[in-house]
Design brief:
The protein is about 65% helix and about 15% strand. The chain has about 450 residues and is α+β, with helices and mostly antiparallel strands. The chain has 2 domains: about 1-35 and about 120-285 and about 330-445, Outer membrane efflux proteins (OEP) (Up-down Bundle), CATH 1.20.1600.10; about 65-115 and about 290-325, no CATH class. Strands 2-3-5-6 form a 4-stranded antiparallel β-sheet, with no helix packed on it. Helix 1 packs parallel to helix 5, helix 4 packs antiparallel against helix 5 and helix 9 packs antiparallel against helix 10. The relative contact order is 0.13.
């Protein structure tokens, strides 16, 4: 009896702890994930890098300009001797001392190099970078779509456990009511102590099941907080209302799969990239024409010497030139690159056909799975109604003493099983719908 009381107290405390939690709607959860999820942030940064790569600054179409500047300074002290030399009077020629002779040199220049034509390699590479950017966008969209699918899967698991918790609370209340009735009946001699003990055992079992469900519910809520990048202790309730998309609307999405399926779209982008790789490789057959130009300034200041006066040389120069380079034969490297690029393109075409077949298979499987699970959910809904009616009638019969507590307990268990099975069928059907939406590429375009 003491253990029974402890379980009831613990259950009451846990129930009160979760009573005042804010509702987290599906729309709000998706918005939080798009804003705060780590994986989505990384994907967005990757797209930004690809956007930088496709910019004109990374295309090779702009010239390169370099500036140079130099300065030097030298100071010399020199003594010049004239051994054996005399003047007209026969006097030895004196030494010449040159002290603090300064030499200064300055120069600065600007050089420009620009490729006028490179066999269209830059053009095709620039287009290739744009295709890579679009591919990265699709990959980021796929990451976001997978994250939202993960988010909703956990969200609906929280919803399922919440509904199970509610059903099990109701079952516990029924079992508690049985204890009271059994105790009253025992006091008035209408049953035995065994009926009271059986009712207490059922209350204990129902309490333990409810506590385990609540623990699993809190664990799953923490999983959802991780996806949302929120504090793990953040408490909330979820929306258990489920709306299914009409079949006609789903069929229209299935018909548009070639235009929206992310795997197919990525395959198309890779095919376009491989096509540009061939053209870039072929550019090696054509010449390269370049333009060069420079402007320079030089200042040389030389000191006086024994024989020459000091000089200052100030020079400015401008140079413009053009050059052509044509690699007539590079040992076959260009030919090999072109051949290999064509083979890669052919492989990509084969891969596209394989992907198209696999996507068609996955769509058919997902659609059939969804229809099957939706039908199971509808059957389980009817089963709940049947078991609810059976339970109500069994309760009436039990209160009148026409059936035993064991028979009543079985009706109660049947109802609880039907409710939890219906909850599982409902969210299984919704998850099947989400997986179908993912394959159609419409998961981010529908309201939940």
């Amino acid at each position: 009896m003491k253990n029974y009381i402890k379980v009831i107290v613990l259950l009451a405390l846990s129930t009160n702890a979760f009573a005042q939690e804010k509702l987290l709607s599906k729309t709000e959860a998706i918005a939080l994930a798009l804003e705060q999820n780590f994986g989505i942030k990384v994907a967005e940064n990757t797209v930004e890098i690809a956007d930088n790569n496709q910019d004109i600054l990374n295309s090779g179409f702009l010239p390169s300009i370099t500036g140079t500047a130099n300065a030097s300074y030298a100071e010399d002290n020199t003594t010049i001797e004239f051994p054996g030399q005399v003047d007209e009077n026969g006097i030895p020629r004196p030494d010449v001392d040159i002290n603090n002779a300064e030499t200064k040199r300055y120069n600065a220049g600007i050089n420009l190099n620009y490729t006028l034509f490179d066999g269209l390699g830059r053009t095709y590479n620039y287009k290739r970078l744009k295709e890579e950017y679009q591919l990265t966008e699709l990959q980021a969209r796929e990451t976001i779509q997978n994250t939202i699918l993960q988010l909703l899967s956990i969200y609906f698991e929280v919803a399922r456990l919440s509904e199970n918790e509610y059903a099990q609370k109701q079952a516990l209340e029924v079992s508690k009511d049985r204890i009271k009735r059994a105790q009253y009946a025992f006091e008035y001699g209408q049953n035995t102590q065994l009926d009271v003990l059986n009712a207490e055992v059922d209350v204990t079992n129902d309490s333990i099941i409810l506590l385990n469900t609540q623990q699993l519910l809190q664990n799953t809520k923490r999983d959802l907080n991780v996806v949302l990048n929120r504090d793990l202790s953040n408490a909330y309730e979820v929306d258990t209302l489920i709306n299914f998309i009409p079949m006609l609307e789903l069929q229209a999405m299935v018909d548009d799969v070639p235009m929206n399926n992310l795997v197919l779209l990525q395959t198309d982008r890779n095919l376009a990239i491989n096509e540009y790789d061939i053209k870039v490789s072929k550019s090696g057959y054509l010449p390269v024409i370049g333009l060069t130009g420079s402007y320079g300034w030089n200042l040389n200041q030389n000191p006086a010497s024994a024989f020459f006066p000091g000089t200052i040389n100030n020079n400015k120069n401008l140079f413009v030139g053009a050059g052509l380079t044509w690699n007539l034969f590079d040992g076959g490297s260009t030919i090999t690159r072109v051949r290999n690029a064509k083979i890669v393109y052919e492989n990509q075409e084969l891969l596209k056909k394989q992907v198209e077949l696999e996507v068609a298979r996955d769509i058919e499987n997902a659609l059939e799975t969804y229809e099957n699970r939706l039908a199971i959910y509808e059957i389980q809904e009817k089963a709940v109604i049947t078991n609810q009616n059976n339970f109500e009638r069994s309760r009436e019969q039990y209160q009148l003493g026409r059936i035993t507590s064991i028979e009543f307990r079985q009706a109660q268990i049947n109802l609880l099983t039907a409710q939890t099975t219906k909850n599982l069928a409902k969210y299984d059907a919704k998850l099947a719908e989400l997986q179908l939406l993912q394959l159609t590429g419409q998961l981010l375009n529908v309201d939940f």
